[in-house]
């Protein structure tokens, strides 16, 4: 590996691996490689620079430790900003993070993300923006914002809706999925039975000259990864689909909310019970906003730019919502796991929100009107 001096950020390593491959590596192991505003901006700047770098034909993205690719955004820092009266600083983080995600969705060169260990929240944003998404037997993926009072952002508005009622259930409950289930719902494109080093070595040995176009390069990468794909044990989500379809229908918020929570008392499926408990103990405002966003993104094909534009506005609303500060306090700061949410008993969609998550997108305003929230 040869260091590529595109950034001086201490939490981002950029190196040439050889034969047209550039490695972009997250390096914040103590926080499980959580993103903050400066790291998100640095990722954006580096990958933009690599778009014009003639020596870079493809990008490999991973982290320096196997425990996690990226466990999300640095929400403790965002909460502190809010408490310090610097909510605008938190707004900047979301803009930087979403700009990086949007740019990756629109990228022309092949990007491979090695999603080993925990991939959650902001890590899912990076993973889902790549055309090639590798997981391993140790991978655990989730959009767990229900636990901290944020909402499934970083493009989750769209990539949850694209997975239908399964996506809605995963957004409402923040349930963890393993490699096989991630592959089943196309959160992952491949499951690797080889080590990171072995997979990268195979890719570095590709003969680009046999396919002299960007499309051809994509085919070469796809063929190489198909050769290493191996299913692994574990189909918890797959084995829960009938029950999910029974309790999560996407027609009435209160019906979905109560039916999912009821699973906690009646199911013998431990994964479903944990999912139900997450919703039961999670932020009502997050649940309501997640349900509404799923409705909005399911209604029509929303371009990524439109998705992130709306998410920016809703993040600014949610970061100022009392549930966010309280959720992060209870889960990650004091760690008493006893959040006192703004709404204690959910009686309606509008009441659960505790406010109006307005935005300037007309189609979003129509969704709020349709469900009696405006």
What does this entry show, briefly?
With 374 residues, the chain is an alpha/beta fold. It has helices spanning 37-51, 75-83, 87-105, 122-128, 156-161, 164-173, 179-184, 196-204, 214-226, 241-247, 253-266, 270-281, 284-299, 304-318, 322-333, 349-353, 362-370; strands at 2-3, 12-18, 21-26, 58-63, 68-70, 111-115, 118-120, 132-135, 140-142, 190-191. The protein has one domain: Alpha-Beta Complex (2-enoyl-CoA Hydratase, Chain A, domain 1).
Description:
- There is one protein chain.
- The longest helix is centred in the N-terminal third of the chain and has 19 residues, at 87-105.
- The termini are far apart.
- The mean pLDDT is 96.
- The protein is globular, with a radius of gyration of 20 Å.
- α2 packs across α15.
- It has helices at residues 37-51, 75-83, 87-105, 122-128, 156-161, 164-173, 179-184, 196-204, 214-226, 241-247, 253-266, 270-281, 284-299, 304-318, 322-333, 349-353, 362-370; strands at 2-3, 12-18, 21-26, 58-63, 68-70, 111-115, 118-120, 132-135, 140-142, 190-191.
- The chain has a single domain (2-370), classed as 2-enoyl-CoA Hydratase, Chain A, domain 1 (Alpha-Beta Complex), CATH 3.90.226.10.
- With 374 residues, it is α/β, with parallel strands linked by helices.
- The strands form two sheets. The chain has a seven-stranded mixed beta sheet with strand order 1-2-3-4-6-8-10, with helices on both faces. A three-stranded parallel beta sheet has the order 5-7-9.
- It is built from 17 helices and ten strands.
């Amino acid at each position: 590996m040869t260091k590529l001096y595109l950034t001086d950020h201490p939490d981002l390593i950029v190196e040439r691996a050889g034969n047209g491959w550039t490695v972009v590596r997250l390096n914040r192991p103590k926080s499980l490689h959580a993103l903050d505003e400066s790291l998100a901006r640095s990722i954006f700047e580096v990958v933009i620079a690599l778009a014009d770098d003639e020596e870079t034909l493809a990008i490999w993205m991973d982290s320096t430790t196997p425990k996690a690719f990226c466990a999300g955004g640095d929400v403790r820092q965002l909460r502190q900003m809010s408490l310090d009266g610097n909510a605008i600083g938190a707004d900047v983080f979301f803009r930087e993070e979403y700009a990086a995600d949007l740019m990756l969705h629109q990228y022309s060169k092949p990007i491979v993300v090695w999603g080993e260990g925990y991939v959650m929240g902001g890590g899912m944003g990076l993973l889902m923006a790549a055309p090639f998404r590798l997981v391993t037997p140790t991978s655990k993926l989730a959009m767990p914002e229900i636990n901290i009072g944020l909402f499934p952002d970083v493009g989750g508005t769209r990539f949850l809706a694209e997975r239908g009622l399964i996506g809605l259930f995963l957004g409402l409950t923040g349930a963890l999925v393993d490699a096989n289930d991630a592959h089943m719902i196309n959160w992952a494109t491949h499951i690797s039975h080889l080590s990171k080093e072995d997979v990268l070595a195979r890719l570095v040995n590709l003969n680009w000259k046999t396919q002299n176009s960007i499309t051809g390069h994509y085919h070469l990468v796809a063929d190489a990864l198909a050769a290493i794909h191996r299913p692994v044990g574990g189909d918890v989500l797959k084995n829960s689909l009938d029950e999910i379809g029974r309790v999560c229908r996407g027609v009435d918020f209160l019906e979905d909310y109560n039916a999912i929570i009821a699973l906690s008392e009646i199911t013998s499926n431990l994964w479903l019970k944990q999912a139900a408990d997450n919703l039961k103990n999670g932020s009502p405002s997050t649940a309501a906003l997640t349900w509404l966003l799923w409705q909005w993104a399911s209604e029509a094909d929303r371009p990524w730019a439109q998705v992130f534009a709306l998410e920016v506005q809703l993040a600014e609303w949610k970061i100022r919502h009392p549930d966010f500060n309280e959720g992060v306090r209870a889960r990650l700061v004091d760690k008493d796991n006893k959040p006192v949410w703004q709404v204690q008993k959910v009686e309606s969609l509008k009441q659960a929100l505790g406010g109006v998550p307005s935005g300037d997108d007309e189609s979003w305003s129509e969704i709020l009107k349709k469900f009696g929230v405006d």
